[in-house]
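<purpose> Linking amino acid order to shape
<body> The protein record starts here
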Amino acid sequence: MTHNLAVLAEESYARLGHYESLYFEGTWLTSTEIHERSIRVAGGLRAHGVKPGDRVVVLTMNTPQVFIAYRAIWRAGAVVTPVIFLQTEPELRHILSDSGATAAIVSPELVGLFSGAAAGLDITLFVVGEESFDALEAGEPTEIVPRADDDLAALLYTGGTTGRAKGVMLSHRGLWESGRGIDLVARTTTVTRSLLPLPLSHAYGLIVAIGGLHTDRQQVAVLQRWFDPVGWLQLVQEHKLETSPVVPAMLQLLLGQPLAEYDLSSLQSFGSGGATLPPAVREEAERVFGVTILEGYGCTEASAVVSAETMTATRPGSVGKPLPHAEVAILDPDGKPAPEGEICVRGPGVMLGYWNDPELTAQTVRDGWLHTGDVGRLDEDGFLYVVDRMKDLIIRGGFNVFPRDVEDILLQHPAVQVAACVGKPDVESGEEVVAVVQLVPGGSATGAELVEFAKARMAKYKYPREVHVVDAVPLTSVGKLNRKAVRDLVGG
């Protein structure tokens, strides 16, 4: 069978037929409209010189045109190259030049950023909602360009907070299999109405969209241009939505809202990924929203998802069992199995490699195993537990301190909404444990009080010697803790 993502989209439309499938800012789009527009845009791309294998940048906020563009690019045999809109001009310049993109689909409000970053580069620009994109939509419908299972389907740039962003090469089969894994999780629920607040330009949002192409039920999706908690609550109430894929920071922000003012009784479940969900946040969210939270784990280099809980197999504290397309091993630094160690992944979802970087690829994928850089363990029933990122490990006086352990304790304090822990250089201990916290609205606590709170609940070598109360804990563009920015805050 073929794993061409354009074929998957075509089969999805043939299977589910015509219905109102996507709501965005007051307008409903039907499955037929999305399908037919994507076919025309594919023809327009080919007419404008986009060839199989060409990289096409998609630089937009969440809009229906993202779904149309992705399907069109795959139909034309080209490579989806999504870019999160919260980029600086130098960061975007690096992505545009490194990828060798030949075309770009850009939101009107981002044209200035794009034009500055693309100066001197030969990239054809199509602006959503303007004449250039209309010209694509006026294209003659085109047939699907055949692509092999291991042909490049998407080039996602990741790691910009720790250095120059790396292009991760993902194949048609890898994304197809990973999307099927997401759908297998969804099939253990009864939900058909979802809210999408995730950036579709991120691996998590992309794989949720691909998962929807595997479904056997007509699914209604409500799309947020970007996440805002008040808008999220209003949309759930208005459209009686049943589920939403989120990252933990979104849940933490939602829990700080006046939830009693909204009718959220339609909610049944959340999918949580992108970062580890603190147990205290999960417990409170399940209680307050009356939902089951299904945690998952993955990374861009593994086509976004590796493991997930399902409605029939949940275990709080874990990130579920590996999905059918992924094999997981826990290895020590010598590459031997260990009770706790680096999470390594093998299977069709593993990236083809880093774009233009065979040396880093060889370091990261060894003997077919992707070395994720995450520390974890598997229990006797095969559930995976993520301990922390190896690179975030703090070594204080020769003792290992995982930031997540500190954060989980601080989040038990009723006044703390978000917590982030980092290591700070120290003459005596090598590194000192330092944390920053964001309080719940109306909450009150001093840094000294929180130090004492943690001290009473943690081993002497672990507790933070400094806790700084800040207006907002720094997050990345996809809602993860931005530890680099936290280090800058505390002088780390």
Notes: DSSP finds 15 helices and 26 strands in the chain.
